[in-house]
Amino acid sequence: SNDSTYAWGYDPSVAPTVTGVNSGNSVNATTVVGQGQVITIKSGGSLTVSKDSSSPSYTLAAAGSANTTLGVLKFTATNEAINLTKIALQMTGNDAQPTDLTKITLWDGATMVGEAIFTTKTAVATLTSTVTIPKDSSKIIAVKGNLASIGASQPGTEGAWVKVDYDGDNSNN
Questions:
Q1: Predicted confidence (pLDDT) per residue in 125-137, tens digit
Q2: Cα gap 17→24, rounded to integer Å
């Protein structure tokens, strides 16, 4: 059952006989008395996503700005390493529209790892390279946006509060 631990060994008073399956040759085995490694049974790994403490509560940015940090996400893997190949995002600012952003980019440190374009208030970024979150560790991914221009024949909304978060309800994550 989950969280049970096991270790295997053998009775040291019984010498093992080792014979090659294909060759039939015998080998004199050297043994070490003692318990093997303890193995803990887990039902599987898990991934949690939260807003990182370095995420800005808000940022003032001019229309037409590129690479404006909109948020910082913290991905945490438990019990096993997790490979991310896509990340679902949602616009949560009430007055923001998909046309207020020309593009979203995702950053692992100084490396851009993915991008998305909002056509509705949700988007799924397919990553350009797999992001691995090590077992029992976290990885920080910055969400940056290119803001649309405002004016005659421009798609941006004046004064819009553009907010982008992780979309944990999206089944395409």
A1: 999 989 999 999 9
A2: 12
